[in-house]
From TrEMBL:
It comes from Shewanella eurypsychrophilus. It is found in: Cell inner membrane; Membrane. Coiled coil: none annotated. This is Cell division protein FtsQ. It comes from the Bacteria. The chain crosses the membrane at residues 20-40.
Length: 255
């Protein structure tokens, strides 16, 4: 085959190529490449803390025990991220990890602010010595705060905090109506109830009929009132009566 024949064949093949399709594919490829580069650059910019920093965090909600310094420390690492890359769920978790924070809600506000609403724990009682109970009967750990007034001391097995708090409310209400104040209430591992009044008298209530036994104490107390300073304990774990432990007897027993 001569070179002239080869050249004529190539000219025929080139004439058969669909140039519109080729240029269309090239244009589409360039567009896709350009969009990919734009998305890549946009992603870099959105995640650049220097280009789009978080300039402010607005904290709302009544706070008594959570300071600005605690919030700053909790968010110091998260604040290094950009406005768009900051995970509001992580911000929420960091705030709710603070000891006196019960709940936090976080949202972005354009162009560079995070808005936070905090709800603090409402401590209503001490729990097992070094923990606290909130108004829902949930246990939480937090440092002691002098701004909190005197609270009842409650105790019980793990998982029984709501039961103890509910029972305390019922028992203390009945006692208060009749002029008594309940300082502490505990539930033993064997589910027996023990209460202590503000005058130091220990009430042994047992496991059953605690409200009826409290009423029995209220009914009988007038006969003990003259000797209230020497009453150490009232055992109400009887079907119809009660037993009184005296202060002197308790001292002798302890010796």
């Amino acid at each position: 085959m001569s070179w002239s024949e080869v050249g004529s064949r190539w000219r025929v093949k080139l004439s058969e190529v669909d140039w519109y399709l080729c240029f269309g594919l090239m244009f589409f490829t360039l567009v896709v490449f350009g969009l990919s580069m734009a998305v890549w650059k946009l992603n870099i910019m959105l995640n650049d803390a220097d280009a789009l920093p978080i300039e402010a965090v607005a904290i709302k909600g009544e706070r008594k025990y959570t300071s600005d310094e605690e919030i700053q420390v909790a968010l110091q690492d998260l604040m290094k991220r950009s406005f768009f890359s900051a995970d509001v769920n992580q911000v929420q978790e960091a705030l709710e990890a603070l000891p006196w924070v019960y709940q936090a809600s976080v949202r972005r506000e354009w162009p560079a602010k995070l808005k936070v609403f905090l709800i603090e724990q409402n401590a209503v009682a001490h729990w097992n010595g070094d923990a606290w109970l909130n108004s829902y009967g949930e246990v939480f750990d937090a440092p002691t705060n002098d701004d909190i007034g005197p609270l009842p001391k409650l105790a019980g097995p793990e998982g029984q905090s709501k039961v103890v708090l509910t029972t305390y409310g019922q028992v203390s209400e009945l006692l208060e109506i009749n002029g008594f104040n309940l300082n502490s209430l505990s539930l033993s591992p064997r589910h027996a109830w023990h209460g202590v009044l503000d005058n130091g008298i220990l009430l042994e209530l047992g496991r059953e009929d605690k409200m009826a036994r409290i009423q029995r104490f209220i009914n009988v107390f007038p006969t003990l009132e003259k000797q209230v300073k020497t009453v150490a304990k009232v055992d109400l774990r009887y079907d119809t009566g009660l037993a009184v432990g005296w202060v002197n007897a308790q001292k002798r027993a302890s010796k």
